[in-house]
Write a structure and sequence with these properties.
heterodimer, A: alpha+beta, Sulfite Oxidase, Chain A, domain 2, 10 strands, 31% helix, B: alpha+beta, Fumarate Reductase Cytochrome B subunit, 4-stranded antiparallel beta sheet, two-stranded antiparallel ribbon, globular
């Protein structure tokens, strides 16, 4: 009896080790990763199925706000171009809206701030698991897209950023459902003040139904495209390209 | 003694006497093993996700500047767990540990407990969300099947008689003395089994799935009430972790009970459905 138990225990431990190294090996296989990743599409379709395309993320009252809103990722873009813009208070800085649009735009921060403002107190959910509630002030992306006039072929919006990771600039992308969502704004203000540099000054994306890494900071160009294939690594974002994160970050 | 030996079937060479009977339905067996695999992957990939931010909070939000009720970390004195303000040294196991090659790591949970075994949040998430679908869909299928084949009503639901404190007390005493039924009584779940299975199937697993969904920013827009019923996202994340710990505890006790009750017979009954009973005094036939 004892020996049978011992045998079971050692079998169990051996199986455990095998299973673990097996999981690592499976994770190293691109085919198996593809199988696991297919659930991303299922998740996106299921979440889109049960929610209206304009369903709003919960908005909070000022008393719900985090005392300290954590910033993550780049805290200070190191390029000389960004440093020059920062030194001049973003006087000569421009946001470009181009790609598959009929009327490309080049807008100063002043022009953007003169547009209708949406203020929203929302929760920022980081992929790592932490979350913080903050107040954002910005222009609904829809207004910029309407002004630029998307061409028929446009499917995605790519946000090109001023901060570099190695030699690659940060970038992110969303589809048109999130692009035209009422809470999707390009925020120039946070917590009743101008947007601080660690949080993406002068302009960052808020796309409230997705995780933090989709909320591109230091946005300087919005490009409408038909496919994400030709841009950097082709997966639609820096974290998607470099670290294999999902393009759809609704969960 | 002599009489027993004489009446034992001569043709049966097995040391275990008795007869094989049908024990578990095919739906129950398939669901059991699919869930066992899914829960195993979900627990371990979940620990990987936890490692990305090894702190838990109560309320609607929680990040580095806020006060966690649970934190796994390391400092100059080594790895530790901080629970409600108390520092519990866990060096070598949690917070700071060495891998198989002797390299030190300062992640919360060690490599042998996570999927993948090396730090990869995107990898952990990929496994977690794929198997979350497996767990959820198989649970729904099992619940529907068990409703229609009356598994829930006939086998899982405790009777009023069983819920009497005296009966529960007797069952606790039997378990404590490791006295397990061998005859026809072994074909029915005892009250502690029923309560733990009902607790897992109807409480723990649904809470795991719902708190998981309550953390999703897209679900937050689709079903705002879901995050509310768990008192906010940081609370939902804490409850997700506590329920996972309870599930791990259930699995541990479940496995111990399988070993104590006779692992070969028990595991066979969950694979082939056949279970050997040894007729006891008082059994019919």
């Amino acid at each position: 009896m004892i020996s049978r138990r011992k045998m079971l225990a050692s079998l169990g431990a051996g199986a455990g080790g095998l299973v673990l190294s097996g999981c690592d090996r499976l994770d190293g296989s691109e085919t198996f990763r593809g199988v696991l990743r297919s659930s991303e599409g299922l998740t996106m379709r299921a979440q889109r199925l049960i929610s209206d395309r304009t369903a709003l993320a919960r908005e909070f009252s000022p008393s719900d706000m985090s005392p300290v809103f954590r910033s993550n990722g780049t805290a200070m873009p190191g390029t000389s171009a960004y440093q020059a813009h920062l030194a001049s208070g973003f006087r000569d800085w421009r946001l470009r809206v181009d790609g598959l649009v009929r009327r490309p735009l080049s807008l100063s921060l002043q022009q953007i701030r003169a547009m209708p403002v949406r203020t929203q107190i929302t929760r920022h959910d980081c992929v790592e698991g932490w979350s913080a509630i903050g107040k954002w002030h910005g222009v609904p992306l829809k207004l910029l897209l309407d002004a630029a006039g998307l061409r028929q072929e446009a499917r995605y919006l790519v946000f090109h950023c001023a901060d570099l990771y190695g030699t690659n600039p940060y970038y992110e992308s969303i589809d048109l459902i999130d692009g035209f969502h009422p809470q999707t704004i390009l925020a120039w203000g946070m917590n009743d003040a101008m947007l601080p540099v660690p949080n993406g000054a002068p302009l960052r994306l808020r796309v409230e139904r997705q995780l933090g890494y989709k909320h591109a900071k230091y946005v300087e160009r919005v490009e409408a495209v038909a496919t994400l294939a030709g841009i950097q690594g082709g997966k639609g974002g820096l974290w998607e390209d470099n670290s294999d994160y999902e393009w759809y970050a609704g969960i | 003694m002599a009489a027993t030996t004489l009446t034992a079937p001569v043709a049966d060479p097995a040391p275990e006497r008795g007869r094989l009977v049908k024990r578990h339905r095919i739906a129950t067996r398939i669901w059991h093993w699919v869930s066992a695999l899914a829960v195993f992957v979900l627990l371990m990939s979940g620990l990987m996700i936890f490692n990305a931010h090894p702190a838990l909070y109560w309320g609607k939000y929680g990040a580095n500047a806020d006060t966690p009720w649970l934190m796994i970390n390391s400092d100059a004195n080594g790895g530790f767990v901080r629970l409600a303000g108390y520092r519990i040294p866990t060096d070598g196991v949690l917070g700071r540990w060495a891998d198989g090659d002797g390299n030190m790591h300062t992640n919360a949970f060690p490599g042998w407990a996570t999927i993948p075994s090396y730090y990869s949040l995107s990898g952990g998430r990929r496994w977690h969300f794929a198997f979350a679908w497996v767990l959820s869909l198989s649970l729904i299928a099992f619940l529907l099947t068990s409703l229609f084949n009356r598994h829930i009503k006939r086998d899982l639901a405790p009777t009023l008689e069983e819920l009497k404190p005296a009966h529960i007390g007797q069952d606790i005493a039997d378990h404590a003395r490791l006295r397990f039924p061998k005859g026809e009584a072994a074909l029915r779940y005892n009250i502690l089994q029923k309560l733990s299975y009902v607790g897992v199937i109807f409480v723990l697993l649904p809470v795991m799935i719902l708190t998981g969904l309550a953390m999703s920013p897209a679900m937050n827009a689709a079903w705002p009430w879901l995050t509310e019923i768990f008192a906010g996202r940081a609370s939902a994340r804490s409850i997700h972790f506590i329920a996972a710990a309870l599930l791990a505890l259930f699995i541990l006790v479940h496995l111990i009970m399988v070993v104590l009750a006779g692992p070969f017979n028990e595991i066979r009954s969950m694979i082939t459905g056949r279970f050997r009973i040894v007729p006891q005094p008082g059994d019919k036939a």
